[in-house]
Amino acid sequence: MKLERKYESNLEGIKSIDELTISVLKKHKKPMTTYEIAKALGISWSTANIHCHKLKAEGKLISKEEKARLGIGKRVLWWISKEE
């Protein structure tokens, strides 16, 4: 128990990745790809992807898949839902 409390108190004032993701999308004011979000936050693409999907499930983000400009892949654009 003591370790948990100490760990929690050390995290006070630190924003979560979810909060930072929403903040960067608000600042950018237009849809961003998962890659752009990851670069802006200094995290890996996979971490950004996980948090974006989590925020989408919570109704905080909206996404749209589109064909990538180059190659055969796809990319996902993210933006803040109107409720946020």
Descriptive report:
- The chain is of the alpha+beta class.
- It has one domain: Arc Repressor Mutant, subunit A (Orthogonal Bundle).
- The chain contains 4 helices and 3 strands.
- The chain has a 3-stranded antiparallel sheet with strand order 1-3-2.
- β2 and β3 (74-80) form a beta hairpin.
- α3 (34-41) crosses α4.
- 14% of the residues are buried.
- The model is unreliable at 1-10 (pLDDT under 50).
Number of helices: 4
User: What is the CATH homology-level superfamily?
Assistant: Winged helix-like DNA-binding domain superfamily/Winged helix DNA-binding domain
Number of domains: 1
Give the tally of β-strands. 3
Q: Note the beta-strand portion.
A: 15-25%
- First-last Cα distance: 35 Å
Say what oligomer this is. single chain
Q: Average pLDDT value?
A: 84
Radius of gyration: 15 Å
How do the strands line up in the largest sheet?
1-3-2
Question: What structural class results from the helix and strand content?
Answer: alpha+beta
The biggest beta sheet, please? 3 strands, antiparallel
- What is the CATH domain class? Mainly Alpha
Molecular shape: globular
Write down the secondary-structure element order: HHEHHEE
Helix content range of the residues, please?
Answer: 40-55%
Tell me the CATH architecture: Orthogonal Bundle
Examine the coordinates and then state which fold CATH places here, giving the name of the CATH topology: Arc Repressor Mutant, subunit A
Are there runs of 5+ residues with pLDDT below 50, and where? 1-10
